[in-house]
Prior knowledge:
CATH architecture of the largest domain: 3-Layer(aba) Sandwich
Structural class: alpha/beta
Largest sheet: 5 strands, parallel
Number of strands: 14
CATH topology of the largest domain: Rossmann fold
Shape: globular
Strand order of the largest sheet: 7-6-5-11-12
Strand content: 5-15%
Number of domains: 3
Amino acid sequence: MNSAESYISKASLIAVRTLFQEDIPQNLVQIQITRKEFKGDYTLITFPFTKIAHKSPDEIGRLIGEELLRSCEDIAGYNVIKGYLNIELKDSFWIRQFNQLANSENFLLPQKTSRNIMIEYSSPNTNKPLHLGHVRNNLLGYSVAQILSANGHNIIMANLVNDRGIHICKSMVAWLRYGEGETPQSSKKKGDHLVGDYYVCFDKHYKEEIKQLMEQGKSEDEAKAGAPIMLEAAEMLRKWEKEDPEVRSLWKKMNGWVYEGFDETYEKMGIHFDKVYYESQTYLLGKSLVEKGLRDGVFYRRDDGSVWIDLRADGLDEKLLLRRDGTSVYMTQDLGTALTRVEENSLDEMIYVVGNEQDYHFQVLKLVLKKLGYSWSDYIHHLSYGMVELPNGKMKSREGTVVDADELIEGMVATAREMSEQLGKLDGCTPEEIDSISRTIGLGALKYFILKVDPKKKMLFNPEESIDFNGNTGPFIQYTYARIRSILRKAGDEKINANVPCDAELNAQELSLIKMMNIFPDSVQDAGKNFSPAIVAAYAYELAKEFNAFYHDNSILSDKDKKKVALRISLAREVSLIIQKSMSLLGIMVPERM
């Protein structure tokens, strides 16, 4: 089954080719939904055809409109406004579309493509627990993966764990100095939280040592470089790279604590990965690539032994690849990881879900790979997203001023339960149902609030706004779904047969609902092209609003006309299925009752 937009697009292409005898490409045919203030269903932009037609946009619109009326029996009429051709489809077209929809198990699924796309998200450091910023990253990455899969691509969801480096050594040094053998079991803390406490502890003592050194007459830069605790962390990193057994043993133990904590948080969020990569396993390959680049003259070594690449001729800067002590940096590791992935998976595209603070890093990564001779670097895409901010500003992990992911999730679930009880939406539910519904609503509120914002935009997190059963929220859409499922259960109890072709005359709201459902595949396609779950979120909200307006004004089960009853039950059923599918693309579950 093709969407209405696809039908109009193909018909318009044929009309243009017929009228102007030109074999124009499909991408010149630009179709959009007609704005509400104008009459029509879809709008064709005529400006791209002025060069081949040698006519004004309005005249082109009238010619195409007449050709569509002549050649397409489903076209009801048209009007032209300032170069825009508004096309109206007959009710019979929409009835036919709906009947196909109601009898299709694979509603508007695209053709399977052969594209292998890896999408990397999460990418945590093993020196701290996941926080609100990670929540946006994980939810965005998982949702984009679902959307791209729905567009027919073969998707590999990957996680790159930043399990080595100076930041990891900071937590290790602090634990050795001040931990007194503390473990997750002895402290009754999740392992990632425990290790994160020592990262904050390191920063506290580091600042104290800097202050003491400055009081002794050192400059701030000298104090930062000479602080004993920082020198100890740097020495530990060198030992780690030389595979010192004691350092490696402590590293494995503390990382193990963190992994257990991460897995618990991922399960709470409802996300998973197909592959997990570790920087500790790819950084050596990155270093070998740097050595190759040195031999080939792509990189150069400074007098202090550090290795750099000069990208100033490309409009960028000089970039460090290896420190003077031979230890690697993020860029070194990312080179090795990228090559490993391409060789293992025959990828057509690699998408990195990373905050916009790393825009420059990915510019450099692509360019360095290009200079090393890897043409596939052109297929690296950085899905750059805006930071999540709090009312009091940015979060800082080393200072402990973060919104912890675990606490956030549990807080959302508790708030959802409290609000649902106050509104009477849990009346008659068993304790098990109350727990399940509260978790579904709480997580749905959190995910929707984050994903409804365009990824490119920074966002201000306000949990109070997210849990509301009215307005543009996850709970509003979830409640609409639950309401529909209740209607369908009653229809089942009354043994009403809605599995019959629609041949009833449609009123304006029924027609509008069918049109809205038909937009679903185009929304999924647009979301895939733009890597933006916000497009699906906006669609789900508009569909829920449309159904609620229809439900308010139309009797569903008690109409005297049995054909109308069958039609409206069928409409409700299909709306519920599309809401369920839309929300699943956002990683959100919908409750059967609430």
